Every structure is written in structure tokens, then in C-alpha cells.
Amino acid sequence: MASTASPMASQFRSSFASSSTKRLAVPKDINIGAAFRISPTKRSFVIKAVQIPREMEAIEEYPMNGGHGIYSYAKNSYRQGQAINAVKELIKEEITEKLDINKFPSSDTFRIVDVGCSTGPNTFFAVQNVLEAVEKKYQREGLDHCRLPEFQVFFNDHSSNDFNTLFTSLPPNKNYYVAGVPGSFHARLFPEASLHIVISSYALQWISHIPKELVDRSSPAWNKGRTYYAHAGAETIKAYADQFAKDMDNFFHFRAQEVVTGGMVLLTIPGGRLDYQILSNTLYDLLESTIVDLAKKGIISEEKLDSFNVPQYFPSPQEMEAAVKRNGCFSIERIECLHDEKKQANPKEARVFSSHMRAGLEFLLSEHFGHEIMDELFDLFTKKIEECEVFDMGVAFKLLVVLKRK
Amino acid sequence: MASTASPMASQFRSSFASSSTKRLAVPKDINIGAAFRISPTKRSFVIKAVQIPREMEAIEEYPMNGGHGIYSYAKNSYRQGQAINAVKELIKEEITEKLDINKFPSSDTFRIVDVGCSTGPNTFFAVQNVLEAVEKKYQREGLDHCRLPEFQVFFNDHSSNDFNTLFTSLPPNKNYYVAGVPGSFHARLFPEASLHIVISSYALQWISHIPKELVDRSSPAWNKGRTYYAHAGAETIKAYADQFAKDMDNFFHFRAQEVVTGGMVLLTIPGGRLDYQILSNTLYDLLESTIVDLAKKGIISEEKLDSFNVPQYFPSPQEMEAAVKRNGCFSIERIECLHDEKKQANPKEARVFSSHMRAGLEFLLSEHFGHEIMDELFDLFTKKIEECEVFDMGVAFKLLVVLKRK
């Protein structure tokens, strides 16, 4: 099945006014640990230390392949790079139009974070793009045109991310101070009101963990014989969607604490549609088919197939809008849908696409199925791509979500 | 020769008042790159981005052994741990007595950095000690006793440091936000006035690079047949000492920009004496003797021996005092000398000491002499420790330098 995504861009392009009052909503699933004191102050409340979401222990880490090897993320992240490139001008436009620099004390360091940054080089391009937009904004609107703030850029990803590769491949002529922040973006990462811009590119689709019911034989959501939700039943889809919604509640809850008033959050996410049909014929479909074939051949057990699920969810614009509104701390400045291209088959490129998927999923797959079958799995996957006449590069579209902290 | 260090503690224990006015002195060897704009403001000046010391290209990286293997720093850093433990109470005392918390806006995040932190676990103990002292100070003297600031702790080391090991071994119940900062402490690392406490434990003895004259046959400082300066001629010693002085000028220049008024710098450094005799019979002596023996056997070439120098310098309290005074931005609150213990030989422990040195110097030695002779080199080194009746654990004493930003 080919993509049939309808043109949704214009209808989500406008700004939304939230009816919520300014507050730091504590979602129901957030537990403030006993070790952390809360004391009343003029700034609502002060939390001494990191809040722990109740399901913190369930946040799992799925690092991209580190290093610079042939299957590394650093060498196989062209698609994420394309996504960054596709929204580059939109992001610049949004920042130069909407960032409230006059709300920030002029002596402040300007702090930017890329959450879920992996190892580079994409994160460096994304950050540079933001920096150029912010500099332009200061040059155009700053009270003193010569005075640019100092920039501090935080690169965030799980603690198992390959920060060594990230740090040794930093751009040599960067005009910002660098820091790496290990930890999940589903949890609190930064001090209160300490960030001016949060970006994230192709990271938020990773859910914090696979909901238990997907691997529970007694649950109607049991995802038997499948590896993700595209062709699954309604209960399975709902389990994925609910997990994503919970994860977004945590994400916006924590970012609302970290971002200053007037600060912006710009998210690029591979998006899907609520009817899910759009997911057919994607690289994920071909990967599922590969794993099913290996199970049929007896190379992996049926049990292993049934207990494996890709921890990614591709939200619709409506789902993202709903999550932001539930949180209530951000105004929606723009939700833009950019359609993914359909890819005409080209046998020469099959290996490239296969390696691209391998860079992102090998850790996950080898943890579950064993390192020893990775070559066979990806060889078969490559063949399936070669045999496929037309497939979707992505899942439906890239979703750009631009928010401002109220 | 055994240690003959005189009791210097008391004479350096008092506070010194600097005659310098408050300023950000730009040392002669600092070059503000063309890419960086300077514009006048009420805060003296604002530099858009990272300053580049003129000798930046000469800053070399000597990472400790990463990971958790048998020769890793993480498993072989007991001596650094002992040093941290030895000054633990003194550091607590200094912070609780002298930190000017009422100078810091109450809404500020309290930012701490450990420069030259390596991979842990020592850095976590050192940081925890500082945190406890700061918390005590706030509880005792804060205007609102219940209100503790949020803490953000930066772990700094060269970009080739094993941050992956550091990040995956962070204490689970830490009550601070974490960030890793890659880069040399001989350069600028942080935005202006963004740090409240800087600590460093057993790191500042690493000089930024070996002065050229040490390997220049035509120079009187040529360090032929030796690997460090303990038994070298006056010219060689001077070259080491001058390099250390320049490095300290950079260190204090950059830290002065980064630390807020009232903020503190607490440094633990393996110290030596100006007469250098104290360096005899140390582990460094035994290592030099090992390398010389390998050269005599023809296992390493004479040229390789002549061109190798350990890039460490063990300053006297007088040298540290002079460096702080040249900078002029810090008051000296305390310089304390804690004598290193003499170690009675114990053959069982020889391997432990050898592995300790290997964790810190293997990168350097294998880069120069080749990885393939490391086992032989350290086996011989271990034998030399076994045969030695008494040796100095350290070089003379631990030096605790406590400063406050004026």
C-alpha cells in the first residue's frame, strides 16, 4: 500500500490559544520522591532535586549504534539529517519571528538543548541552525545590536549513548560552550527555568518502554506474531498510543519546568495518522516481515518474535496538539506536516537503507534476538528492500511542532 | 632518598590579601580569535564565545584509562581517592566557613564543576562532599532555611576522557542535575560568571604540553636520558616550572571569568618542593628507571627515551601562591600542605601500585613507546617496586589551595 496522507499542513499551521492558566501541572503519574523537599516560594514551588516519574524504573535505553563504524549512527543517519534539513528554514523563521528575547535578562547565558541528540553530526547542524536564527534575532531586535549573549549548548541523550563519539567529533569552530547531559527526556534533566530553546529531531517517537500488555498472553493487546502496531488490533494500537500519551505528559511536564517564560520548544517527529493505514509498506513493515520470516525458518523462536515490539510510536498532529493542551504551559505556535517522499526502488540503495535502520535498531534487536543473527537479519532485510518496487521512506510525514512557554 | 619535607602547613594556612584591583586580566599569551566580538558593556566586556589561548593547539590530551578493566582509572585510583579523603573535612570546613551564599541571588541554580574529573568514582565522592558542605551552609545561614537551591554539577575533562564510563556509573540517588563538559581546563569552558564552586583533585599537575626545549638537542634544557625533571639540570626544571606557571596563568584567567563573585575554587594538587630533592625514590623515579633499563636492553630506542617526558609538574605552595597573585582575581583563603605517607615495601601491594600508575600513564606511554611493550614495561616496574624497601607514595605532599573570587 502506498501513502495516502491527506494535506494536513494548512489546518495545523495556525496558532492555538490554550485555555489553561499558567501553572506547573503535576501529572497523576508523577511521584515526588521522599528525598525531595518542596517548599513554598513566590515561584510556585521549589523542588530540591530531580523529580522521579513513578515509572522511572521503566524508562529503557535504546542507544543508537555508537562510534564511526559502518553501521554507526554517525555514518547512517542521513534520513534524520534530511528531516533536519526539511524543517531548517521553518525553524529559523519561527525563532526569528516568535522568540521573545526581550523577556530574557541581558546578562543571561542563552541555553539551548537538543534532547535525544545521539552522536552527531545531525545534532551539530540542528544546533547551528538554531544559533544562527537566535543571533539574527538579537542582531535585528536586541536593544544593543552588538551585544550577543554567550551560548551554552547541552547535548542530551540516554546515559548509554556514545557521548565519547559525540564529544570527539564536535565542530572545531563552534561559538558556544558545550555540555553533555545524560538521561532520558521522559524525566527531569535541567534546573528550573534554565533553558531558552529546546529542540529535538526524530527522537520523541521512542516511547519510554513497551507497555506490559503487549507481551501479556492474557491481554487483548498481546501483539502476537507482530513487531509493531501498524497491522495490529485496536487494543494493541491503543496500548502504544496510551504509552506515547503518558510519555508526552512527562515530557511536557518536565520541559515546562526547565524552559523560561518566552522560551521555545521545537520538535521534529516522524508522524503518522490516526487510521494507522499509512504505516503500510514502510521500512518498518519490511523489518517486521524479515523477523517473521526468520521465525518461520526457526532461526528465532516464536516466543522471541511474540515478545519483541519496536518501542516507537508515530503520533498524529492531533495527538501532539492534545498532549500540549493537557499540559497547559505552552502555546502552540505551529504544527506543520511535511510529507515523506515515496522512494522508487533502487537496488543499489537497499544496503544504505538497511544500514540506516541497523544504526538505530541493532542495539534493541541484538539485545532481544542475540548479536549472532544480526548479519543474517539485515542481509534478509536488505533483500526485501531490493525486491520492493516502491516503499515509503518514512512512516507518513515529518511533524514540526513549535511551542512557546507561557 | 626518603622524604624530608618540612612542616609548611602552618605558614601557608593564613589568608592572603591581594593588592590587585578586581579585573579580568588578559594574560599576554591569550589571543582573542578573530571570530569573537568584544563589545563594551557595564560588565567590563562581553566575549561572544570561547576565548582561545594562543597555545591552544599545543594543549595535549592525556586521558586516564577508561572503562572498568583491570588497568582502568575507575579501578585504580585509590591514591587520588585517598587525597580526596585527606582533604575532605578541610574542604567542608572552608566552604561552611567562607562561602558567601548571601551574594548569590536566591533563584540561582547552584553550579559546581570538578575539572579534570576522569571517570569516577572519586569525582562523585568529591562532589558529594562539596554538596553536603553547601547544603549545611544554606541550612545554617540561608535566609529561608527550608529553601535549598537546585544543584547542577558539571564533570569536566578532556574530550578524549571516557565520559561513557563516567555517565553510566553516576550515583543513583544523586540530588543534582548532571552535565559533562569536554575540554581542557587550560582553556575557557563555561559562560561568564556561571559557576559557584570549582573543585579539582589531582589534575592540575598535568601540564598542557611538554615544552619544546625538553626534546631539542640544541637546548640546554634537553632532557636526555631522563623522563621527568626530578634529577634533571636546572634548565630542564625551569622549562617544566615555566610551563606550569603559564598553564596556571591560563587556568586562573579562565576560572576568574567563569566563577561568580563570592564563589570558591578548591584545588587538591600533588605538591613538591622548590629544591626538587623530595622527588627522589618516588614511583616516578622507579618508572624512569624502568624505562631507562628497557632502553639499555634495546627494547626501546635511545631516541624514544630521550624524546619522552612525563607531562606533570608538582608545584610548591610558593608557586601556587605566586600564580594566584599574578592573576589578582582571587583571595587566597588557605594553602595547606598535607604530607604524603612513606610506604613500607610490601611485595603483595607492588602490583596494586603498578596498576595505579598504569591507569594514569598507559595512554601516554603506549602512544610514545607502542602498545606492545606495555605489559613488559609494567612487569619490570612492578618488580622494581617489590625490590624497593621504602618509597614515597606521592611526590612530597598534597597541596590544598582554597580561593575565593573577589
From TrEMBL, chains A, B:
Listed GO MF terms: metal ion binding; methyltransferase activity
Keyword Transferase belongs to the record: yes
Keywords, comma-separated and alphabetical: Magnesium, Metal-binding, Methyltransferase, Transferase
GO annotation, biological process: methylation
Protein name: Probable S-adenosylmethionine-dependent methyltransferase At5g38100
